[in-house]
C-alpha cells in the first residue's frame, strides 16, 4: 500500500510533463506554410552568384515561404541540391514549404527567358537570340571581340564554339558574359569527351570544322560514316563539294536543294570551288558530331547522298552515286523533303 502510494505521484508528474510538452508543440506557430495549399505563382529573379541568404529573403518577401531561416538551413545542406539554382527569372508558387520552393527553383522548366542554343546553330543565330533577351545588356555584335575562343584560331572566331544547351541569365548580364559562359561550357564538354586527342595529322581546329560539317550534313546515326567520307576526300585532295558550306556562305542555310549557279560563288566556304576545309566551322556541333569527327568510321566511301529523309547512302563508285542523284531529284520533285 505504501509502495503504491509512493509510485503514483511520480507517474502523474511524468504524465503532466509529457502533456505539457505536447500542448506547447501543438500551439507553437509553424515556420512553414502548409505543403498542400500552394498560392498563385510569382516570379523570382536570381542573380549570378547570389547567396542563399539573399534568395531566402526574396522568397519570404514575395510570400513564397514563411521564414527565411528555414530555407537557409535547407540550402546549407550539401545534399539539398541548392548549388544547382540557376540565375535568371523563375516562376514559383507562393505559400509553399522551403523544400517545395527549392524544388521549383531547381526545375529548369520554370525558368523564363531561356536562351536555347541549338545543335547546328551559328554565332549569328545566337547573337539574334541574345539581342531579344531582356536580361542582356550592351550591343551583341561588340561582344564578340571581348570573348576568347576555347580553341585558338587565326581569326579568333567563336563559330562552332558556343555549346548547344539551354541558358538563363540574370538581369544586367552583358552579351560578352553570356557568350563567355557558352564558350566555357563548350570547353568543359571538350574535356569530357577527351577532345585533346585529335585525329593524327589534323589540328583540333580542323577536327572542330569537320564536326561542324558532320552536324549539318548527316543524321545522328550517320555521323561517323559521313566523317569518314570527309577525311577520305581530304586525304586524296578531292573537293569536299558540300552544299552546307555554300549555303553557309550565301545565307541559304536550311534549304534542301542547291543550284548549279550557287556552286560557283566566289567564297572560301565554297567547297565545290576550293579544295580543303572551310576557313571556320559552319555550325555549333553536338557532342555526337564532335565524337564522330574524332573517331571517323574506317571505309573507302567517297560519295554520300540522302535520297529521301532518313535514307542516306554511301559508295565509292561515281556511277552509282549519279544513279542515286537521279533518284534524289525525283524524290525532291515529288515533295518528299517538305
Question: How would you describe this protein?
Answer:
The protein has 338 residues and is mainly alpha-helical. The protein is built from twelve helices and nine strands. The strands form four sheets. Strands 1-2-3 form a three-stranded antiparallel beta sheet, covered by helices on one side. Helix 8 crosses helix 9, helix 8 packs across helix 11 (287-294) and helix 9 (223-235) crosses helix 11. The protein is elongated, with a radius of gyration of 30 Å. The relative contact order is 0.09. The model is unreliable at 1-27 (pLDDT under 50).
Features:
mainly alpha, 43% helix, single chain, 12 helices, two-stranded antiparallel sheet, 3-stranded antiparallel beta sheet
